[in-house]
């Protein structure tokens, strides 16, 4: 027997020695069974006692694989010097404990067996979670065997795999195909294979991958970090963290930045930013342009690419340098200035408003004040300035007098209109001349009503067009009130702002939310909603000839198993395309789930059409699909009712028809009429 220091025993929950000649166990230490310590016990008796009382039922095969009398005898006489595995023990009614069991072959064929509670690894993971809140899990991978064990930061969760003999590479392949977006899954699996990871860690301390995971309708972004667990390089550690918030925040920032840049690019007012350059004595000698919008480039007569990253006085050597000290003061001291600039060659006068962007950099907005030299009254000057700015961005400008309820129109498209119109006359003129959609007139009337009730600023979205030869676009009508300085008269200015791209983008997002992402037909919830909405609109109709089709792809699971899930996805998309080709645009097509689809046809027995002709057309298109996929078949159930029924009635009867089709041998259709 071996003499073990007390310190070593404290690291183990149990420490035993197995004698293959006597088939007995000597207990050096045991937290669970202290009464067995310091004496020999029959191995088979102990094996059965633990099997019955302590080992988790789901882990009995692991217990037998390593510690049954036959297997421990084989280990004692075999060539394997070490073995270890993980298993769960019942904790006297208080739940399960994960234990790591280590077996080591000694020189006299005796086997030293040690057991330790590995819950402290969960505690370590919890500490890691506190430091790194985005932590998903920590995984330890045995390079030689390919086995692994995975820990969550939450001690209440079980490990991902209950059996450490599971093959890491195989499990990763299956997991990625199920949870990672298709365009990344295969590459991610290849990059996560043990051999590839070891190769990438040859000359660096860690290897990092990024992946996009699917979760229902959402996407999650994950970071996977590989490293060696210790200096022996026999185990890998994989730490997965969630970076969705970081990625989404970055995307939002990029979107906002694009908006800001687009806003500046399309502004009628010239904008420019620059870095002030200093000589060896710290005095300013030039400035380098870092940004310019199109209005500024047009003002100075040089294209934007020619301006960027170049020194200003190299481009314009004859330009007066008297404003340079003020640019320096703004860039380095943060002092804003309003500077005057006469652009003599263009006969224009500008006011330059400067502001600090960061240390050494300034921005400026150039306002054209040329007309102000010719204005004598404050009211007229304000109006002309506002009108000049608005006319550079829109073809529609008007002034509304709240008290008189009349409009002064500056310009509408290319047509001349009356200079003064009533509220009703303006809306009627816009509709008659084709600049405003008739359905938008009530929204415009409501906006004017709100202004009369005291609102000083509002916006309303309208379908309109600036020129009659153009198509309809979305515009935002902006209204804001002001009071003249001398007359104290309430007036409202209005102008149109094109928001068509933003509205189309919003409509596209709404469409995606209603659509099955794979087949691009409606998803289940949207399909049901549209059908129920249609039936609600027909509730006062006594006679109807609506039809519901329920259809699925025959033996779809076998297609996936034989040709792979990617082939299955292609078949689903092709079948959805067949449905779009067969049915009308107004017919409601949605994916019920898996390989099942539903189509609802309004007035299926209408003029010039009947249900048999629709089914015949569908069958013809399916036969065409079979030329691409010889294994393809589809079973179809149809229910046609000559009176309007509930959604549930249509569905139940069409489902019965599909069931009849299946009973007859699949790959054809059954029509039930009510």
Task: Provide the fold topology.
Elements: H1 6-10, E1 14-19, E2 24-30, E3 40-42, H2 43-53, H3 60-67, H4 69-77, E4 82-90, E5 96-105, E6 111-117, H5 119-131, E7 135-142, E8 148-151, H6 168-179, H7 182-192, H8 194-200, E9 207-215, E10 218-228, E11 235-242, H9 244-266, E12 270-278, E13 284-292, H10 294-300, H11 304-307, H12 312-315, H13 324-333, E14 337-343, E15 348-358, E16 361-368, H14 378-391, E17 396-401, E18 406-412, E19 420-422, H15 423-432, H16 441-452, E20 457-464, E21 473-483, E22 490-498, H17 500-513, H18 524-537, E23 546-553, H19 556-563, H20 565-582, E24 588-593, E25 596-601, H21 611-628, E26 634-641, H22 647-664, E27 669-673
Helix pairs in contact: 3-4, 6-7, 15-16, 19-20, 20-21
Strand order of the largest sheet: 3-2-1-6-5-4
Individual helix count: 22
Report the mean per-residue pLDDT as an integer.
81
- Overall, the morphology is flat
Q: Note the beta-strand portion.
A: 25-35%
Extended strand count? 27
Largest sheet report: 6 strands, antiparallel
Structural class: alpha+beta
Low-confidence stretches: 158-165, 412-418
Whole-number radius of gyration? Answer: 39 Å
**Straight-line distance between termini:** 88 Å
Percent range of helical residues: 25-40%
């Amino acid at each position: 027997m071996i003499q073990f220091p007390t310190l070593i025993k404290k690291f183990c929950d149990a420490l035993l020695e197995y004698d293959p000649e006597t088939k007995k166990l000597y207990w050096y230490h045991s937290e669970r069974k202290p009464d067995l310590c310091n004496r020999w016990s029959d191995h088979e008796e102990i094996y059965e006692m633990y099997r019955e009382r302590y080992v988790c039922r789901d882990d009995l095969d692991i217990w037998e694989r390593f510690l049954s009398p036959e297997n421990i005898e084989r280990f004692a006489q075999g060539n394997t010097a070490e073995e270890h595995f993980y298993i769960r023990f019942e904790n006297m009614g208080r739940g399960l404990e994960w234990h790591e069991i280590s077996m080591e072959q000694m020189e006299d064929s005796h086997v030293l067996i040690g057991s330790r509670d590995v819950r402290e690894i969960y505690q370590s993971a919890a500490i890691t979670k506190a430091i790194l809140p985005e932590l998903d899990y920590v995984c330890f991978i045995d390079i030689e065997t390919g086995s692994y064990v995975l820990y969550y930061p939450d001690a209440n969760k079980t490990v991902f795999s209950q059996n450490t003999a599971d093959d890491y590479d195989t499990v990763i392949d299956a997991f990625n195909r199920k949870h990672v977006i298709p365009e990344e899954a295969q590459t991610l699996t290849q990059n996560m294979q043990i051999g590839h990871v070891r190769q990438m860690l040859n000359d660096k301390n860690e290897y990092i991958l990024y992946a996009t995971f699917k979760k229902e309708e959402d996407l999650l972004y994950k970071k996977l970090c590989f490293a060696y667990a210790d200096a022996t390089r026999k185990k890998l550690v994989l730490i997965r963290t969630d970076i969705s918030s970081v990625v989404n925040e970055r995307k939002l920032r990029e979107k906002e930045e694009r908006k800001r840049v687009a806003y500046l690019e399309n502004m009628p007012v010239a904008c420019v930013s620059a870095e002030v350059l200093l000589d060896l004595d710290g005095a300013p000698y030039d400035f380098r342009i870092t940004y310019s919008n199109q209005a500024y480039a047009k003002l100075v007569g040089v294209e934007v690419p020619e301006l960027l990253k170049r020194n200003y006085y190299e481009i314009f050597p004859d330009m007066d340098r008297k404003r340079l000290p003020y640019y320096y003061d703004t860039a380095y001291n943060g002092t804003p200035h309003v500077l005057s600039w006469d652009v003599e060659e263009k006969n224009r006068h500008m006011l330059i408003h400067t502001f600090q962007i960061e240390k050494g950099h300034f921005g400026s907005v150039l306002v054209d004040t040329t007309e102000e030299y010719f204005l004598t009254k404050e009211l007229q000057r304000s109006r002309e300035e506002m009108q000049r700015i608005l006319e550079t961005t829109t073809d529609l400008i008007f002034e509304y007098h709240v008290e008189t309820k009349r409009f002064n129109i500056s310009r509408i498209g290319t047509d001349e209109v009356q200079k003064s119109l009533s509220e009703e006359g303006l809306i009627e003129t816009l509709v008659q001349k084709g600049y405003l959609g008739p359905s938008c007139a009530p929204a415009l009337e409501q906006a004017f009503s709100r202004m009369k009730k005291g609102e000083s600023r509002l916006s309303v979205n309208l379908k309109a067009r600036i020129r009659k030869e153009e198509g309809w676009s979305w515009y935002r009508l902006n209204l804001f009130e002001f009071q003249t300085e001398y007359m104290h008269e309430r007036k409202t200015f209005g102008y149109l702002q094109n928001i068509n791209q933003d509205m189309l983008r919003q409509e596209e997002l709404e469409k995606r939310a209603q659509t099955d992402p794979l087949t691009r037909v409606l998803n289940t919830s949207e399909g049901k909603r549209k059908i129920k909405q249609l039936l609600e609109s027909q509730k006062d109709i006594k006679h109807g000839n609506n039809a519901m089709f329920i259809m699925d792809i025959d033996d779809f699971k076998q297609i996936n198993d034989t040709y792979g899930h990617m082939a299955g996805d292609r078949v689903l998309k092709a079948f959805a395309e067949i449905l779009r080709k067969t049915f009308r645009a107004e017919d409601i097509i949605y994916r019920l789930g898996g390989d099942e689809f539903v189509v609802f046809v309004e007035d299926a027995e209408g003029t010039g059409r009947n249900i048999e002709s629709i089914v015949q057309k569908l069958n013809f298109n399916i036969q065409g699909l079979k030329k691409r996929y010889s294994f393809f078949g589809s079973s179809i159930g149809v229910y046609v009712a000559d009176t309007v029924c509930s959604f549930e009635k249509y569905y139940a009867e069409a489902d019965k028809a599909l069931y009849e089709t299946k009973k007859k041998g699949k790959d054809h259709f059954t029509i039930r009429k009510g």
